């Protein structure tokens, strides 16, 4: 199984300031078709996970452009350019390049 | 957009059985691969199973293989997870989710399964 490791596990951020979350896999996430199936999910308190980004950096429908993704191979980053109150929650990276699909442990974003 | 609603969770004794359902809206449901994912405070998000749009090619996590069966009825726009020989460690919130080009783009609200005597 591919192991996904996120850092930090908790991120206190001031409103309006940027935030960054790292995700590393223990194997390359490049699929045989050439695409990298790394996604980022957001889980607000009491809600199910919600897709933010897929294939490293493509924003899903309705996701604000303050969310961006980057990286390649085994190292990936989620950035929020200016944190808003509604961004509070837990963020997960997820790989679907290979079954079983695996998730990072989650990073809790909180407001200072 | 696909709306997903899970049901069927509850309290079951160890060794017991339970069937979860996931009702989907819209014609896209019958065209989508579907997944079950579970979540606990200790383990986080854990993938459980996947099934192709036509009901073929079911895959399972090692932890549930031989005990859980995924199926679907596209005429009813419904996905199922049949769970047998339940263990305490199967206690979790179970989500269904649609697969879209190797990501999980829509998730249901989840249904809680508690395995306890």
Summarize the SSE layout with pairings.
The complex is a heterodimer of chains A (112) and B (117).
Chain A: E1 4-7, E2 10-13, E3 19-25, E4 38-43, E5 50-54, E6 58-59, E7 67-72, E8 75-80, E9 89-95, E10 102-103, E11 107-111
Parallel strand pairs in A: 2-11
Antiparallel strand pairs in A: 1-3, 3-8, 4-5, 4-9, 5-6, 7-8, 9-10, 9-11
Chain B: E1 4-7, E2 10-12, E3 18-24, E4 33-40, E5 44-51, E6 59-60, E7 68-73, E8 78-83, E9 92-99, E10 104-107, E11 111-115
Parallel strand pairs in B: 2-11
Antiparallel strand pairs in B: 1-3, 3-8, 4-5, 4-9, 5-6, 7-8, 9-10, 9-11
Describe this structure in words.
The complex is a heterodimer of chains A (112) and B (117). Chain A has 112 residues and is mostly beta strands. Chain A has no helices and 11 strands. Chain A has strands at residues 4-7, 10-13, 19-25, 38-43, 50-54, 58-59, 67-72, 75-80, 89-95, 102-103, 107-111. Chain A is globular and about 40 Å long. Chain B is mostly beta strands. In chain B, 0% of the residues lie in helices and 52% in strands. In chain B, the strands form 2 sheets. In chain B, strands 2, 4, 5, 6, 9, 10 and 11 form a 7-stranded mixed sheet that branches. In chain B, strands 1-3-8-7 form a 4-stranded antiparallel sheet, with no helix packed on it. The radius of gyration of chain B is 13 Å and the shape is globular. At the A-B interface, strand 5 and strand 10 of A face strand 5 and strand 10 of B.
Structural class of chain B: mainly beta
- Shape field of chain B: globular
- What can be said about the biggest beta sheet of chain A? 7 strands, mixed
Structural class of chain A: mainly beta
In short, what is this structure?
The complex is a heterodimer of chains A (112) and B (117). Chain A has strands at residues 4-7, 10-13, 19-25, 38-43, 50-54, 58-59, 67-72, 75-80, 89-95, 102-103, 107-111.
């Amino acid at each position: 199984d591919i192991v996904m490791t996120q850092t930090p596990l908790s991120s206190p951020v001031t409103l309006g300031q940027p935030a960054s979350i790292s995700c590393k896999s223990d194997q390359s996430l490049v699929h045989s078709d050439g695409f990298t199936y790394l996604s980022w999910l957001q889980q607000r308190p009491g809600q199910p996970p919600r897709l933010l980004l897929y294939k490293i950096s493509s924003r899903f429908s309705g996701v604000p452009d303050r969310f961006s993704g980057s990286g390649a191979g085994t190292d990936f980053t989620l950035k929020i350019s200016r944190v808003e109150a509604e961004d509070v929650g837990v963020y997960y990276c997820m790989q679907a390049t290979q079954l079983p699909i695996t998730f990072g442990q989650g990073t809790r974003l909180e407001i200072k | 957009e696909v709306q997903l609603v899970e049901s069927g969770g509850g309290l079951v004794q160890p060794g017991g059985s339970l069937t979860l359902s996931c009702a989907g809206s819209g014609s896209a449901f019958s065209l989508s691969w579907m997944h079950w994912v579970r979540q606990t405070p200790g383990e986080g998000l854990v993938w459980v199973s996947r099934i192709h749009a036509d009901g073929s090619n079911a895959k399972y996590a090692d932890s549930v293989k031989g005990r859980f069966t995924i199926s679907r009825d596209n005429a009813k726009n419904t996905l199922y997870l049949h769970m047998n020989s339940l263990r305490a460690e199967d206690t979790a919130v179970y989500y269904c989710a649609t697969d879209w080009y190797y990501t999980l783009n829509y998730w249901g609200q989840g249904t809680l399964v508690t395995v306890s005597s």
